[in-house]
Amino acid sequence: MTEKTIIVTGAGAGIGKATALELARRGARVVVGARSEASAQPVVDAITKAGGQAEALAMDLSSGESIKSGVARFLESHDRVDVLINNAGVWAGERKLTPEGHEITWSVNVLAPFRLTQLLSDALHKGEGRVINLSSSQHYKGDIHWDDLQLQSNYNAQRAYAQSKLAVTMLSIEHADRDERLKVNAAHPGVAGTDLFRNFPGFIRFWINLLMSTPEKCARPAVMLASDPACSDVTGKFYYKLNQREPHALVKDAEARKRLWELVATQAGV
After folding, report:
1. Per-residue model confidence (pLDDT) at position 196
2. Is there a contact between 218 and 17 (Cβ–Cβ < 8 Å)?
3. Which of 127, 137, 176, 251 is a Cys-bridge partner for 184, taking CB atoms 3.0 to 4.6 Å apart?
4. pTM, rounded to two decimals
């Protein structure tokens, strides 16, 4: 991975942090995406202290303007991206709207990776062009609520999360079909006791932390797709941990994917 530039979102903690540390250990130049410089800097420091290369990139992924500003800052000093790992995600405890008026789960889990990939498209074309979108096994339980994507009338956290992960999986496969120069895949990393579950009741977080996997194990699918030469031409696939698996039936529906793409492109404004 020497001299490869990799952006990892949500890299200040959890699976994103473990992914950034491992790819840096393999020689990559890692851009540590996080909500603030303060949350990214400890990871940057850990990488540089170990002899690696890293830099912070602060962006609020619930804000389209923050994403545009962050990408603009990055492109001032970089002209290529080899790998984009859209790792960041949220499971909201209650329905909240972003300043732009989007439900926050949809905004962070769907609109943000779409925006980032589109804004970085030219830089990805100059690099290896690998895009890894973190999905979830929850996508199998999801449905696209076409008339109410923001779940105004029928919100609950699990429904919002499952829909968002189904959507990001559909968009990954659609993107792979639309742009043959990119290698776009979606992956379920496994479940680790990370900040994703911060809105859960304390007793549930206790059992999650006790019984679930580690961030390091959950980083393996993204690391594999980012670095393994055997994955260099793989695109349009869904991975369950380290193995390809058939996704939700709606992911294979070309008309549904196209419809969703057009809706998300309009919402994302890119």
Report:
1. 54
2. no
3. 176
4. 0.93
